[in-house]
Amino acid sequence: MRRFKIFLVLLVFILFVIQNQGYGKEKENIKTLKQNITWSTVISNGVNYLDLDGDGEKDVVVKGYRNNISAHTFSVISFYLSKKINNQERLDIKRLEVISIGHVPDKEEYQLFTHEGADCILRDFRLVKIKNSKKVYLIKAERYLSGEKTYADKDIVKFAIYELQYDDLEDRFFFNKINEFRATRKYCDVNEAFKHELGI
Question: Does the pLDDT at position 17 exceed 50?
Answer without folding.
Answer: no
